[in-house]
Design a protein that fits this description.
The chain is an alpha/beta fold and about 675 residues long. The protein has three domains: about 375 residues, Glycosidases (TIM Barrel, Alpha-Beta Barrel), CATH 3.20.20; about 200 residues, 3-Layer(aba) Sandwich (Rossmann fold), CATH 3.40.50; about 55 residues, Immunoglobulin-like (Sandwich), CATH 2.60.40. The protein is built from 17 helices and 29 strands. The strands form five sheets. The protein has a ten-stranded mixed β-sheet with strand order 12-11-13-14-21-20-19-16-17-22, sandwiched between helices. A nine-stranded parallel β-sheet has the order 5-4-3-2-1-9-8-7-6, covered by helices on one side. The protein has a six-stranded antiparallel β-sheet with strand order 10-23-24-29-26-27, with helices on one face.
Length: about 675
């Protein structure tokens, strides 16, 4: 079993995607000189280089790659070497046009982009294995090699293919998963609308249909597509393990971005040696640093708290959103160090040198078009020095305060058609709950619904439409043993096959919540409801209401108007040693904060009112010491109280009693033993 840490790194990783094939070799020496100036110690290479490495089938040209890897090694720079299987060459598609994926509508995509792959294609699998084998044999023992980087961002931009090869593969997958066609019929509920199958051979992918396709079939096809991509990753990983043992193998995740929500990263994390992640700011008007924190917390969580690595983010603006603003001065360092605070063992970028050609020529880079006489370059050099000063942080672990349940498969099921309200968005609820906890200065672990939750005083469930009976038992045991649980509406409704649990809603969660829901009552566009407490305090909800019937739970807040007037809106169920809260409407941000504040008090979590909004405070601890990261996302200088004395690592100053953090700055205190 290989180590999980990149081989040969003694500091936090710093660098990015390097594409020397885009530049004449005369530029390479200058690149390496600048890398040394900036403190770069790791670069990712070869990710999109299949056509250069294998210009024709079975004819390989590794000379240029030999030269650049040797040059990097001579200058003390480690290599994250890609298998270029995300971008098969033109010659491959000319010989195997059937390896191009087909859309749900039956359109076969064309060559000329990236990630255009039918993952069921035998020809693709054989070609991918061949180039991976050649790379492993040639570079597996190279002293510069730190990490293998398989493929790139699985699921982007195509996660599912609907061709005939995938149809046959899907039938094989169903045979393994269910055994018989009768079991498939039962799981999918094919008695509805006369969809019953007489044999597995009759089953096709859920292609475009005149009206809604069977939701259970759609859900299983999402699982199949994810598993098929993962099969291909595992095949390459196993080749690398066998031919180049001792070097960890990864592929870059995109955990909290909607572009990659078709991938179940709980399952993928079990297959990689090191969890790595790509994260880019979504500039849609929300506070971008909150989504960044969420992505980092989620990545650390799928890594089970073990070391992980930020493999890509941007020095400044990206190029693929409707509007792509530059990062403000100092924002690159804040973004980078926020990932480190939340568990990353470094900060890597896409990419090293900004491209002159191609689709991403306006995507920022460590060396911008403006060159080294630029704000971006000066900030890159400063960040390299800062990361060097944080070397002792390596190996410590981020300390979490609470947990949030997160399940990709539940989201796949919930976003299928014909749900009670198209205004309900599971991802919106997750973002909103996370932001509320962030503003309470709580560091969050994410957890699978069936995970051991006993370490957390507070667990929140913002949206868990699909919840098995096992999940219900897990949450009940958590509460009975003293935990505090907060569950939002439309959770616990269906089982793993998208079948409604027998009896009243919320199905698997009835017992732990101590209530039933007779009926959903979604609200119209723009409609709101008032919710009141016995003391006259008022909350506001929209989108959704329910007819809640307590079955042991107490009513804490009541609907004041609307169809559900005088009915319970927010309940508390004391069960065993703990408490379970239920919120049956979509609360606005201040209202949600009120409920989470009361639930946090139930959990024994003290408020952190001394910390201003947008002052991010995160702790890492381990054998190398205890560290406090303080990130000031505001335009105002602030001071944060300290519970111990230590040294601020970025300035070298002593810190005792309190820590001054200038506007837009980051400070990291290592506490005295």
């Amino acid at each position: 079993m290989p180590d999980t840490a990149p081989r040969g790194l003694e500091r936090l990783a710093f660098g990015g995607d390097y594409n020397p094939e885009q530049w004449p070799e005369s530029v390479w020496q200058d690149d390496v000189r600048l890398m040394r100036e900036a403190g770069v110690n790791l670069v990712s290479i070869g990710i999109f280089s299949w056509a250069m490495l294998e210009p024709a089938q079975g004819r390989y040209d590794f000379g240029w790659l030999d030269r650049i890897i040797d040059l990097l090694h001579e200058n003390g720079i480690r290599v994250d070497l890609g298998t270029p299987t995300v971008a098969p060459p033109a010659w491959f598609y000319r010989a195997h046009p059937e390896a191009l994926p087909v859309s749900q509508e039956g359109v076969r995509y064309a060559f000329g982009s990236r990630g255009a792959i039918c993952h069921s294609s035998t020809a693709y699998r054989e070609a991918a294995a061949a180039i991976t084998e050649q790379l492993a044999l040639r570079y597996g023992a190279h002293p510069a090699l730190a990490l293998w980087h398989v493929h790139n961002e699985y699921g982007v931009p195509v996660n599912a293919c609907y061709c005939d090869s995938c149809a046959a593969h899907f039938r094989r997958w169903l045979a393994t998963a269910y055994g018989t066609v009768d079991a498939v019929n039962e799981a999918w509920g094919t008695a509805f609308w006369g969809q019953r199958y007489g044999s597995l051979d009759e089953i096709e992918p859920p292609r475009a249909t005149p009206t809604v396709c069977n939701p259970a079939q759609r859900l299983d096809y999402a699982r199949f597509a994810d598993a098929t991509m993962r099969e291909n990753f595992v095949a390459e990983r196993d080749l690398l393990h066998r031919l180049a043992p001792g070097t960890p193998v990864t592929t870059n995740f995109m955990t909290a971005l909607s572009q990659c929500d078709s991938v179940d990263y709980w399952a993928w994390a079990r297959e990689v040696d090191l969890v790595t992640n790509d994260h880019y700011l979504i500039t849609d008007g929300r506070r971008t640093h909150v989504n960044l924190a969420m992505a980092a917390d989620l990545t650390r969580s799928v890594a089970a708290g073990e070391p992980w690595l930020l493999l890509e983010h941007s020095t400044s603006g990206v190029n693929w959103q409707p509007r792509n603003p530059a990062k403000a001065p100092g924002q690159m360092a804040r973004n980078s160090l926020a990932h480190v605070a939340r568990g990353s063992e470094g900060a890597m970028f896409f990419q090293w040198r900004q491209s002159r050609r191609g689709a991403e020529k306006f995507h920022s880079a460590m060396v911008p078009h403006a060159g080294t006489d630029s704000r971006v370059w000066r900030e890159v050099v400063r960040l390299g020095a800062d990361l060097d000063g944080l070397a002792t942080v390596r190996g410590t672990r981020t300390v979490a305060d609470a947990a949030m349940l997160w399940d990709w498969q539940s989201w796949w099921a919930q976003r299928l058609e014909w749900r009670p309200s198209e205004d309900h968005d599971a991802r919106e609820r997750a973002d909103t709950f996370y932001e509320a906890l962030y503003d309470r200065h709580l560091t969050i672990d994410f957890a699978h619904p069936d995970a051991d939750l006993s370490a957390y005083p507070l667990v929140v469930v913002p949206a868990l439409y699909l919840a098995t009976e096992a999940t219900g038992r897990n949450l009940r045991a958590y509460v009975e043993n003293g935990g505090t649980l907060v569950v939002s509406y439309f959770s616990g409704i269906v089982d793993a096959n998208d079948a409604v649990h027998p009896g009243a809603h919320p199905g698997a969660l009835r017992d732990v919540l101590g209530l039933t829901v007779e009926e959903f009552s979604p609200l119209g566009t723009g409609e709101r409801v008032r919710i009141t407490a016995a003391d006259g305090a008022e909350l506001t909800g929209d989108v959704w209401t329910e007819f809640v019937v307590p079955q042991g739970a107490e009513t804490v807040w009541t609907y004041a108007d609307g169809l559900t007037a005088d009915r319970p809106a927010v309940t508390r169920h004391r069960l065993g040693e703990g408490t379970a809260w239920y919120i049956s409407t979509r609360l606005d941000a201040p209202s949600l904060d009120t409920i989470l504040g009361v639930a946090a008090a139930d959990a024994g979590i003290a408020p952190r009112a001394e910390l201003p909004c947008d002052i991010e405070v995160v702790r890492r601890a381990g054998e190398n010491g205890s560290y406090l990261f303080v990130i000031n996302h505001t335009g105002t200088d602030t001071e944060v109280p300290l519970t111990g004395d230590g040294t601020e690592l970025l300035t070298g100053e002593r810190a005792a009693g309190g820590l001054a953090v200038p506007a837009g700055a980051v400070r990291v205190v290592r506490f005295d033993d």
